[in-house]
Amino acid sequence: MKSGDYLIVTLAAIMLIALYVNMWSAPQQAGDRVRIVAEGSEPIIAPLDRDHVYRIHGRLGDSVIEIHQGRIHFASSPCPGKQCIHAGWLERDGDFAACLPNGITVTVLGRNPRFDAINF
């Protein structure tokens, strides 16, 4: 390799490291509200700073969604795989969980949503 080749490889490595730090390593901000959407219904926008339990009717039955101490999660759902429940507590801006068989989604909203490369 010539010295120009080393320069190009070094610059490319620096750019990749900068992209990694900017896109995936920066911490997300805590969300301040949540959007709950059930298929065929109006979205519910609720603050995360007030504890509340929602019973949302979906295609398979009722899902129970709980807001507690600034976090939200699917407490129960009639779906077969329970992936929505296994998603756990959501609290960061852009966090998302869905019960696809029941047609219900939960999204944490904040001021500066960040791209989540792990889930999408």
Describe the fold and architecture.
With 120 residues, this protein is α+β, with helices and mostly antiparallel strands. The protein has a domain at 33-109: Sandwich (mini-chromosome maintenance (MCM) complex, domain 2). The protein is built from two helices and seven strands. Strands 2-1-7-6 form a four-stranded antiparallel β-sheet. The radius of gyration is 20 Å and the shape is elongated. The two termini are 38 Å apart. The relative contact order is 0.20. The model has no long low-confidence stretch (mean pLDDT 88).
Condensed summary:
This protein is α+β, with helices and mostly antiparallel strands and 120 residues long. The protein contains 2 helices and 7 strands.
